[in-house]
Design goal:
about 130 residues; alpha+beta; 2 domains; three-stranded antiparallel beta sheet; 4 helices; 3 strands; elongated
């Protein structure tokens, strides 16, 4: 009988612990559910705003990709040469050594964040 009593106490203790873990997970799940609902509501509001703006505007938009292809295919701009001019080897080396930042590249500066040139600054913009 003594061993049954010890096993019962052990099982009750394990059950209490499992119940506490379950309650914590359920509370977390409820919190996540509320966050998911809030994000869905936000997306719906944004989508509605986008739809309204599109309905009001009859102006066509030219994407940056289309502009790039136009420069390349119609105007004959060598995009690879432009990339090399934007990002010379000296800037690549500075970025490799220093990480994120703004680096001089002759007539301009390259602002680099996480391996991406995010903008170009002229001398006047420095």
């Amino acid at each position: 009988m003594g061993s049954d009593h010890v096993e019962l106490k052990s099982l009750q203790s394990r059950r209490d612990q499992a119940d506490r873990r379950l309650q914590a997970l359920l509370a977390e799940m409820s919190s996540i559910g509320q966050k998911v609902k809030a994000e869905r509501d936000e997306l719906r509001r944004i989508d509605e705003s986008i739809k309204k703006l599109k309905e009001k505007s009859d102006e066509l938009v030219v994407s940056e990709h289309a502009i790039l292809r136009y420069l390349e295919r119609v105007k004959g701009v060598d995009i690879e040469a432009v990339k090399k001019e934007i990002l010379p080897d000296t800037v690549r080396e500075q970025n490799r050594l220093l990480g994120n930042g703004s680096f001089p590249a002759g007539t301009h500066r390259c602002k680099i964040r996480d391996g991406v040139v995010i903008t170009i600054l002229t001398k006047e913009e420095e």
